[in-house]
Amino acid sequence: MVYHTADSQINVRLRLLRNSVSAHARVPLTRRWCLLTHIPPESLHRAHNMSFSTEERGNPNTLSYRIYFKSSDGKYISPFHDIPMYADEAQNIFHMVVEVPRWTNAKMEIATKDPLNPIKQDVKKGNLRYVANVFPHKGYIWNYGAIPQTWEDPGHKDNDTGCCGDNDPIDVCEIGNKVCCRGDVIKVKVLGVLAMIDEGETDWKVIAINVDDPNAKDFNNISDVKRLKPGYLEATVDWFRRYKVPDGKPENQFAFNGEFKDKDFATETIKATHGFWKALISQQTNAGELNCKNTCVSEGDSPFCCSADEAKAVVDGSCPCGEASPVPSSVDKWFYYAKN
């Protein structure tokens, strides 16, 4: 895959570092990144045996509901910035933050503009957003979520899609057998990627499988999904093409004529979005309305550095956990459309 980011400061500096005859040019690329951006290397690749937990706040199925994340030592963290992208870099195993369990409809997402980026339900015109059921689909047909420490840069025009990024972490569709829970942080093996164009923005959809799935060993590339789960990829394209139609939106479009790209292409795409995130968190790119406060990545002199006490104050300032409100019965409605 070819990256067209030479105009960004971060890539110019990296190129200078690569060509330099100084000691910096003789250290690994990840270390050079850390020298350049002042991001501690352990915050990017300390993932082995890491564990995470969640804390619910507010009332489920209401505007107040949030899911905050904690590290293994009980410190509040951002799932966008503090959870490492890699679970095992040597094996190209990635972390995935599960936002939406399979078969559910509530459009939950990492709140990229809120302090500590908790998971919350998307809101449209003041109402909680639920994904419509377009026959024959019911809710999301995979465990859906995002890879942390990635960002689809809205200032970067992708050469393959001809569109800029959607300003979110890169999305993942996990196709294993287990129905995950909101806020689960799982380790996934990447198999391929779909290039969706959503209202003029690039919105990559990574296809992956939980490494703990009993069949994970049989899935190593997108061709294995076609072979072992016939119809699943076609259903995935159909789902993404039509899921906004009940809201009065046009069908979504795709680059590559809706064909899935393979594991290698997907992995390079993820790495590119990780590069965009690094530029974001090191203030090489304008964050705009994004909240980049974190407790593990940024150094103390960074405006993005958030102390443990500050993070706790954010959570304490939210609504205490309460009883769930009922889900509207309209969420179960099925919509029927002829395929174009």
UniProtKB/TrEMBL annotation:
Coiled coil: none annotated. The keyword Heme does not apply. GO terms for biological process: phosphate-containing compound metabolic process. PROSITE patterns: PPASE. PANTHER family: INORGANIC PYROPHOSPHATASE. Belongs to the PPase family. This is inorganic diphosphatase.
